[in-house]
Design brief:
This protein is of the alpha+beta class. The protein is built from eight helices and four strands, in the order E-H-H-E-H-H-E-H-H-E-H-H. It has a single domain, classed as 2-Layer Sandwich (Alpha-Beta Plaits). It binds uridine-5'-diphosphate and magnesium ion (MG). The site of uridine-5'-diphosphate (UDP) has 8 residues, from loops.
Length: 156
Amino acid sequence: MDRTLIILKPDSVQRGLIGNIITRFEQKGLKIAGMKLACISPAVAHEHYAMHKGKPFYDSLVTFMTSGPVVLLVLEGNNIIDVSRKMMGATFGFKAEPGTIRGDFGVSSAFNLIHGSDSPETAKAEVARFFKPDELLEFNRAMEPWIYDLSNGIAQ
Ligand code: UDP
Ligand code: MG
């Protein structure tokens, strides 16, 4: 199954939204394959957002991402990138649709609660940036046959 890297950014942690956001992913049926609380170093933040280097918001973005602990999550599921990006909503809360994480929990045009990988290639690199192979767990959830139809030998 596909995996993606999710970061609950420092504003999510400081505002006590960790549980709310993780609950949404759990209730959707997405599987947590890895999870930890950590501080992102400036060097890793620069690397993670390298594609935005030179843009006017780059320096403040790095400051934001290194301003406190974050929760790092690896989520697993079919079409995980589409599904998780849709749940996150548009980049900033003032624009994001109600019903999305950014749309329901934020209104800022700088702080935006959550990061999610935007393609399978990016996801692979981003998961490897934050997790060692042995920090990603393979296990079966008891509810798995009720999340996906497994009767044909594939998860549908
Ligand atoms: N960002 C910002 N100002 C902008 C655009 C982006 O501060 O005008 C930050 C914001 O934290 C965003 C991150 O840069 O989440 C990465 O931008 P991207 O366009 O990839 O948005 P995302 O994929 O997170 O929705
Ligand atoms: Mg992005």
